[in-house]
Amino acid sequence: SEPGGSRGLAAVTGASRGLGREIARSLALAGYDLLLLSRPSAALDETTIELQKISKNKVTSVGVDLTDQEG
What we know:
Layout: E1 9-13, H1 18-29, E2 33-38, H2 42-54, E3 59-63
Parallel strand pairs: 1-2, 2-3
């Protein structure tokens, strides 16, 4: 990666709360671009905004229920 650039892309499931949120925060601080995946919620929106503020890299979120087999 470029000096001062992203270390790569990390996709984090369950990113809106608990362990998933803490993993996403750690990866943001470590310099990764993030793709946050979680069920659609205000908590996901709040986590995305928080991580965008502390990261110099891209933070993108997608509200998706990964338990839904229909997609």
